[in-house]
Write a structure and sequence with these properties.
This protein is α+β, with helices and mostly antiparallel strands. It contains 5 helices and 10 strands. The strands form 2 sheets. A 5-stranded antiparallel beta sheet has the order 4-3-2-1-5, with no helix packed on it. Strands 6-7-8-10-9 form a 5-stranded mixed beta sheet, with helices on one face. Strand 3 and strand 4 form a beta hairpin. The longest helix is centred in the middle third of the chain and has 21 residues. The protein is elongated and about 50 Å long. The protein starts with 7 loop residues before the first strand and ends in a 6-residue tail after the last strand.
Length: about 180
């Protein structure tokens, strides 16, 4: 993605954003954050904000934990080839924006990413509540921003393992997540 000095950007791994003030090289730049501090960042750590009216902090606070914003129909199930796993034990979601929305014309990259992460968080929460053992998240290959966001989210969770899903079935664009639930007696 091409960035320009003076452009507004949001941070992918934390709340907030800033303005690009300098380029160090093709992949690294300096951003003056909202608190007035200069930060050295890689282009993979930011996303362009296309609208000055857009409040990244407020929007992400609103949607991150509220599954009522979820519109995905993701309760697609898969069976293991050897038949050991019941279909209801595996859930799959496709986070390609075309699968989530009828149209995303006019949406910025950050709005699309926030929508995808909202759907993923809702999906993950429901899978935990239903004690689903395995989930497959199809995020696509692209530049890896969505995949990195998903894995960053998962790395903060307990009783979860994640890795690349089957290459033969999904190619490079999916993550398999194992959820380990404590048994209730």
């Amino acid at each position: 993605m091409n960035y320009k000095i003076g452009e507004k950007v949001g941070f992918l791994s934390e709340k907030g954003g800033g303005t690009i003030i300098e380029f160090k090289d093709l992949n690294n730049l300096i951003v003056l954050d909202d608190s007035g501090f200069e930060r050295n960042l890689n282009v993979r750590e930011i996303v362009k904000i296309h609208s000055f009216d857009y409040k990244l902090d407020n929007f992400s606070n609103t949607i991150n934990d509220d599954e009522s914003y979820s519109t995905a129909s993701y309760f697609v199930t898969k069976e293991n080839l050897n038949g050991n796993v019941k279909a209801s034990d595996v859930w799959e979601i496709d986070l390609h924006i075309e699968e989530l929305l009828d149209s995303h014309i006019g949406w910025s990259n950050s709005e699309i990413l926030l929508k995808q992460m909202t759907e993923f968080r809702s999906f993950f929460k429901k899978a935990q509540e239903k004690s689903i053992a395995k989930i497959i998240v199809i995020h696509g290959v692209g530049e890896g921003v969505l995949k990195n966001e998903i894995r960053s989210f998962l790395s903060k969770k307990e009783n979860v393992e994640f890795y690349d899903a089957s290459y033969l079935e999904y190619g490079k664009g999916a993550t398999e997540i194992r959820l380990y639930h404590s048994k209730k007696y």
